Amino acid sequence: MLLIYCPYCEEERNELEFRNGGDAHIARPTNIADITDEEFEEYFFIRQNPKGLIYERWRHVHGCGKFFNAARDTVSDRFYLSYKAGEPKPDPATFLNNGNESALNKDKGASK
Amino acid sequence: MSGANRISGWGRLTPAKTARFTFDGKSYTALEGDTVASALLANGVHLLGRSFKYHRPRGILTAGPEEPNALLDVSRDAARRQPNVRATVQEVFDGMVTSSQNRWPSLALDIGAVNDLMSPFFAAGFYYKTFMWPKKAWEKVYEPFIRKAAGLGEAPKEEDPDHYAGRYAHTDVLVVGAGVAGLSAALAAAKSGAKVMLVDEQPEVGGALHYDTGVKINGKDGFTWAQETAAELKAMDNVTVLSRTTAFGYYNHNMIALCERVTDHKAKPGKNEPRERLWQVRAKRVILATGQIERHMVFENNDRPGVMLASAGRTFLNHFGVAVGQKVGIYTAHDSAYEAAFDLKRAGISVPAIVDSREKPGEAVLAQARAMGIEVLTGHAVLTVGGKLRVNSMTVGRHAGSATRKIAIDALLVSAGWTPSVHLFSQSRGKLRWDAETQRFLPGTYAQDSLSVGACNGTDDLQATIEEALAAGELMAKAAGAEGNGKIEITGEAPFSWTGGMIGAAEGAGPDTTVKAFIDFQHDVCAKDIRLAVREGMQSIEHIKRFTTNGMASDQGKLSNMHGLAIAAEMLGKDIPQVGLTTFRQPYTPVTFGTIINHSRGDLFDPARKTPIHPWAVAKGAEFEDVGNWKRAWYYAKPGEDMHAAVARECKTVRDVAGIFDASTLGKIEVVGPDAAKFLNLMYTNAWDTLKPGKCRYGIMTREDGFIYDDGVVGRMAEDRFHVTTTTGGAPRVLQHMEDYLQTEFPDLKVWLTSTTEQWAVIAVQGPKAREIIAPLVEGIDISNEAFPHMSVAEGKICGVPTRLFRMSFTGELGFEINVPADYGQAVWEAVWARAEPMGACPYGTETMHVLRAEKGYIIVGQDTDGTVTPDDASLNWAVSKKKPDFVGIRGLKRPDLVAPGRKQLVGLLTKDPNGVLEEGAQVVADPNEPKPMTMLGHVTSSYWSSNCGRSIAMALIADGKNRNGKTLYVPMADRTIAVEVVTDMVFFDKEGGRLNV
Fold it and tell me: B384 vs chain A: nearest CA distance in angstroms?
């Protein structure tokens, strides 16, 4: 059972309170009506399903109701950090290789 | 007397406290604190069951949770019965009834034992190969036969009368295992000021100190020190000590699941006590002090009752005061078993010989054995043992074919060494490393915030274990935020340090033999089966495991995995780490379903949602159907009516007079803000900015891929306020979908979304007399057809309470939907009913609602659509705005496949025989004579008897349906083929729609 840090509530809460929302940082094209089939395919269907670092969306559905993003390792399920929707995609260099601590070890304010 | 083999003055149980129990109908006396195993051994009972596959007689192999053999059926009363209980774990309580399993007609004479003679035919992979042909026999002959033979024990049929509890806990440091290491670690962590939980599966703390009586800690007897330390911990405010509690699962982010057995050891459980309690513990830090499990020696007939682990023999003697035999042989590859011989000898038991497979045992134990006058045969093997229901001799030699000696014994203690219990570490996704020197897997790379200490970490020396545990306790407490001084000193002394160990088959059970030398007792897997698997081409340990079923029983191979791995590695000519290890999975030991579900049963299994009008419907005798979690009134049968008659009457009454319907379950979302219309324009295919306040409109929501996601009527209450309705089942996901776009794609829009599903009770009044029924109750709204035409909405009062009144219809009749605050729902409903009843109207349920809407060709999302249907497929293109620059789905709808001809489209079906009603879900074909498999054109989505049309009506998704108007298609059923005519116009009743606008 994951422990997930909500950047709005500013605390770690049980996975039961959240719902995963798939990959993060996939912006809906502003001219979506005019894009080609290939562009629509890329936007809507193609996902990397990486082994390792993933940026993904979560919603604190049984909490504040907010959507936010998180960087997680899909192998260890370690959360590196979570941040509010709309904030830029963080550079992995800023949070990877920060020692061997998992989300639990870190400062509660990891995302701040 | 509590058994002839109880040695006076030995063990820790109190002779005065006895308990009576039965085994296979015979009554025995036990001492309080006995396990079923120790009590039966005290009474000289070694034969406890028959093995799974060969029905071989089996006894007690261990004294702990790793027991693969001694599985009994244990009951308290008729309904409180549990199969496959490990006799070595279950404590005796007064009045307990136990029985052996897998035998008929009796344990000593078991017909199924013929399987043992037939065993050449039951080799590994037997089932996979034998029952392949003829194909037909599988279903009729093989499967029923195998199913009957399969399974150990008999599941209780009665409902479990016990209750189970669940609890969540948060702690700084969780310590699993309360042996020397766990107690030391917990003490250091607790003294540091951390919040500590210490859990152990046994009734008392102590772990290996139960049997290892030579150990002194802080100058005291080790077991006494353990109890005193536990008492000290329990007295501390920051410590919780749980005994009889198994940490069975290590999950993500230091979430540990515990099973606490609260009453299974009590003769008279308290009335309010749960039988077991599930703990879900979130720990900042975890210390694993899970110890190690002794391995058995692999030799011929090593499964005979009376053969058991050396540590088990010591536990029965030193803790329970029970001698496992009077002439006890030892067969070992490890020094630890020597101490069993010493203990037995001191208790006055004869030890005919210690047979050691090694040429050079540890010098200290060897010297002690000689000093005590025990014969030690080094470099020797027990080639086989005699005795069927109880071991009576061992045949000892240097190797098979050498000169052998037969030694009379009545029990044989064995040890091939020790396997660290890395189960929880592995479950935490930590990576194990192979320690070549000591031939064992040890914790390598940690994946979570935990540390292993003591035996499970490969630390053998007692003082080193203590120091490692103390350091870990302090370190983990500090890491969890504790700031106290946890420095303590504990000194331990053990009489001997142990060396040795072997994995795999012993002398006489090697690759050149076909003897039955068991590695997995519970699944009857022998050394030769592993070899056969390799010869059959299995290379991966995962394949070997599945082919032989080694380690797949409920003991999960606690004793067998390493032996199996070593034998496979030898056959494959590879090193053990190259062959790999199978995955350790939760649970560590079997956990009852009761514990896992605990409170979530009966009414608490899933919440039931009920509308404010529910009690009225119950009083009126409505039948209910489940829609999501909602209980919805299905139909209101009058005395003597079946469902068919009731629905036919309700349908007719609504169209002839009127009906009232509880629509409270409809999802409702209040969409408010200056950009509300703009937002809805993006979320629905329709245009909303053109909708005037006071009007409502049917809307379709598509996903980005262009498929219909939901539908509903949306009323505009004001420029900046919409009352959105969704399908009953769709409410949560529609809100989630809207929130998603609002928060992440269109965050600049000034809109607020609020779920109001449960705030409004909704009373639909439908039928020619609908206006007449509600007119006198409504205040402040002119509900005449001219002032309040179809698809209007207004706020006013009804029965003196505020209402949002919709003029709308899901029946095709003149209709109103009265929204009132939920608390007034039943009162307003009753007021409406008081008007409606004298006019001849009726209440109707969801079934009638379904029929009436189908008569009008209105779709139900999720029934007539399935997530692959576009608005055009459902002939709802009129609801898709052609003018909007954007909405969710606008691009998806242009995808080549979605505009291609020949798609499955929703059409009406009329059976050629008007009385025949199609089955929903039935497949539709063009040519009923086509050989199978036939070309399926689609399926029936909705089908009803329509009393208003006087015939059956149906809707179906049919490939290229819109081009098949008037064509005949066929619905093949098991017993006949039904001819149907396609009608693209799905309006079966009142095609002009005149009844809506009166």
Answer: 47
